[in-house]
Design a protein that fits this description.
403 residues, alpha+beta, Rhopdopsin 7-helix transmembrane proteins, Alpha-Beta Plaits, 4-stranded antiparallel beta sheet, 14 helices, rod-shaped
């Protein structure tokens, strides 16, 4: 069983080396060059299977079954040559005369083998089994087919190596890999012709596919990795652009704080957290800038804009760690989280003291209303906002009474 054991070994090595290409859900199998290579590998695998089965059938002298198996064996061998020539053309991406000739060589060899093997069923010109002892005998047609394959692999080897000498980079590696595969097949096919009952053809494929995996597939992975890196770079740029666009869409152009669109979206998020029971520590402050209409009417809208920007800066400077939203012409809202929430009373007192000082000095006055979320009684954000808004109007009323 020496012959079959070599076939089993080469089959297993092919599976191990090319698992990434052969696995069912491999994305590589969808790329044309890999798809072509995959077809070639399947052809080699079937050749190995036929090679493994041949020896036990021959040992058992099951000549009728063996005749059919040998017929299929040679067809598979011819198919593998066809798949190989197709792969070489696609992989090298050459459209010269050599590629055209190579394309037809594989097709002609396959169909000539089928015709010869069909004729062999009636006239033993390719192979037969001795009627007396069942010995396998090779005919002249089979010898010619083997020499034809030898010529094809030899010509491919010489052509690829000559081209490889003249070029560099990825193309050089590709031509070199194809040339080395051809050299391996040329050597072991010669040995197969000399020793027809030895598995040299299978060994040639084993070494050849290993060379391809080392020199060709790894090189192709590098190329696709470069393409992937380019795509990722483009994606990162798009993310930055999208982030910039999103920032513009959610930013108030006058003050630089978040706008009403961002506010409404964040309110939806707060409502979901309240509904799910995840919101615990949260408070908000509603602000209203006093006297904006008067400034617009007496000093113009440009001065009114500066008035709003100054008010926004005052709010942001006090509540530095809180998102601030401009939800109307002179209305702002701040959500208190984290350290601002922990120091809420201190910050509110500080802000109100600054407003009282401004009031006395005739500067900007901002009314504010504070409300704290209570998980036990508040079932939505709107309830908290209503309390804060009510407190803001109460503060506004008191400030007017002072004035």
């Amino acid at each position: 069983m020496y012959y079959s054991s070599i076939g089993i070994l080469t089959f297993l090595l092919l599976l191990i080396n090319n698992y990434d290409v052969l696995k069912k859900n491999s994305q590589m199998g969808k790329i044309p060059v890999y798809k072509s290579y995959k077809n070639f590998l399947y052809g080699v695998m079937w050749y190995y299977v036929m090679d493994v089965v041949w020896e036990p059938l021959y040992a058992l002298k099951l000549t009728r079954i063996l005749f059919v198996e040998t017929f299929i064996y040679f067809v598979v061998m011819a198919l593998t040559v066809l798949f190989w020539t197709q792969y070489v053309i696609i992989y090298l991406n050459e459209k010269n005369k050599f590629a055209k000739i190579l394309k037809y060589v594989g097709i002609i060899f396959l169909f000539s083998q089928i015709i010869v093997l069909a004729l062999n069923c009636f006239f033993p010109i390719a192979f037969w089994f001795d009627k007396e002892d069942g010995t396998y005998v090779t005919g002249y047609a089979r010898v010619l087919a083997m020499f034809f394959q030898l010529l094809v692999f030899f010509v491919i080897t010489v052509y690829m190596l000559l081209i490889a000498i003249q070029i560099s980079g990825n193309k050089k590696r590709r031509h070199l890999a194809v040339g080395l595969f051809g050299l391996s097949m040329t050597i072991f096919l010669t040995l197969q012709i000399v020793y027809p009952l030895m598995p040299f053809y299978a060994i040639g494929y084993m070494i050849g596919t290993s060379l391809l995996h080392t020199f060709v597939l790894e090189d192709e992975k590098d190329s696709h990795r470069e393409e992937l890196e380019k795509l990722l770079a483009v994606e990162r740029i798009q993310e930055v652009e999208l982030g910039s666009t999103r920032l513009l869409a959610y930013t108030d152009p006058l003050t630089g704080v978040k706008n009403k669109v961002a506010y409404m979206e964040d309110v939806e998020g707060l409502d979901r957290r309240i509904e799910d029971g995840f919101l615990k520590n949260f408070a908000l402050i509603v602000f209203d800038v006093n006297g904006l209409k008067k400034v617009n009417d007496t000093k113009g809208h440009a001065e009114g804009d500066r008035f709003i920007m100054t008010a926004s800066s005052m709010i942001c400077n006090c509540f530095k760690h809180s998102p601030v939203y401009r939800i109307g012409g002179d209305e702002f809202v701040a959500f208190l989280y984290g350290c601002d929430y922990e120091h809420r009373q201190e910050l509110i007192s500080k802000f109100e003291l600054e407003i009282d000082k401004n009031r006395k000095e005739g500067k900007i006055v901002i009314s504010s209303g504070f409300a704290e979320f209570s998980p036990e009684q508040d079932k939505s954000y709107a309830v908290v906002f209503e309390r804060a808004d009510k407190n803001m109007y109460e503060r506004k009323r008191r400030l007017k009474e002072i004035l």
